[in-house]
Amino acid sequence: SLPPQGLLGGASYTILSADYMNLSLRFGYHFATVDALVTDDAEQNYATLHFAGGAGAHFGKSLRIQYIANVLGRLGFATTVKGDLIEASLTRQDRAAMEKILDQLGRLLGSTRLLDMAIRDADQVESLTESFFRGIYDCLEPERKDAPENFYLIAGAWKKAASTMEQAILQDGSHFSSRISAGINQTLGRFIGRKRYLEYLDNIEAYHYFPLAIAKESHLDQGSARLRVKPLSGTIDQAGGLAFAIRDWANYFVFRINALEDNAVLFEFRNNKRFARGAADVPIEAGCWYSLHIATGGRLIRAYLDGVQVVEYETDRGLNGYVGLWTKADSVTLFDSLAIDDGNECCIIMR
User: Fold this and answer.
1) For residue 156, what pLDDT is reported?
2) Beta strands at 273-281 and 290-297: parallel, antiparallel or unpaired
C-alpha cells in the first residue's frame, strides 16, 4: 500500500549530533540505513551501511549490488552480499578520511536510486565503477550520443530521430525477431487470418517484449499526460503508447495504439502480467501521427485518441507514478510532444 500523500516508500528518519549520524532512508522501493561515528579518535570511528530493495528485475538489482559492492570495497569497506541486500562496514579511519568517505557514500546512494532499472550487463559494473572514481556520478546518463536525454531506458533500442525537422524519439524494434520468425508470422497470418493470429500470439504470450522509456522529470499523481505517436513498421506489432502511473518496470498502465490490430487499448501491468482494461476498435494507419491523451482523477482513468474519449476505467489502486514511452516486440515507432499537467502547471518534456 502507498504511504500518506501517495508517495512511494515511506517515512525517513535522521539522528544527527556533532559526531554521530544515523540515517534510515526509504525512497521508492529502496531501503538504506547508514550509521556512523566520526571523532578525533580514529580507534572509535566507524561507518556501517545496510542497503536492500529495488524496483527493477532481479538481474538488474543483482548488477547494481555488484556495482555498489565494488565502489564500497575501493572506499575501504568490508562488504557482505545476500541477494539484493548488501551490508558494509568500515572502522578506524581518522576524521578527515571518514568525512571524505561519507561524502562519497552519499553520492553513491544518491546516484544508484534507479540504476537497477537501467543497468544492462556485467560490463557496465566495471565501467560505472571507474566512472564513479573519476567524479562521474550520474550513472543513468545515456552512453550513446544518439540516446534520448532525460529518460531512463528500460529495454529497447531508443534513439533520437535522425530528422532535424522534429524533436522525436525512435524505438527501433526491427532487430527483435529474425527474418525466419517474421516469415513464419506472415505465412501463418495469411492462412488463419491476420487478426486471429495476432490474438493467438497474445494469448500464449509470444513476443511479450515491451521496451519502455521513463521520463526522468515526470512524476504525476493526478492530472493528465499527452503524447504523439507514429507507428512506422513491424511484422509482429506496429504499436506505440503512453505509459503512466509507472511504479517500476513491471507495474504501470499504458494506453497504446496498434496499426496491425486497428485498435486502441488500455493495459495494466501488474508484476509484469498484462491485463486489458478497456479497448476500442479504430482504424490506425502506419506512417500517420496520432495524439494520445490520458486524464486521471481519484482512481478514474479516461483515455483519448485524437481528442475523442475511447476508454474509461476505474482502478483499485492509486495512479501516482512516472510517465513514459512504450512499444511492443518489433514495432518501429516515433514519439514526440510528451507533456504532463498536474492541474497547476504544464510540463513539456518533448516538444
Assistant:
1) 79
2) unpaired
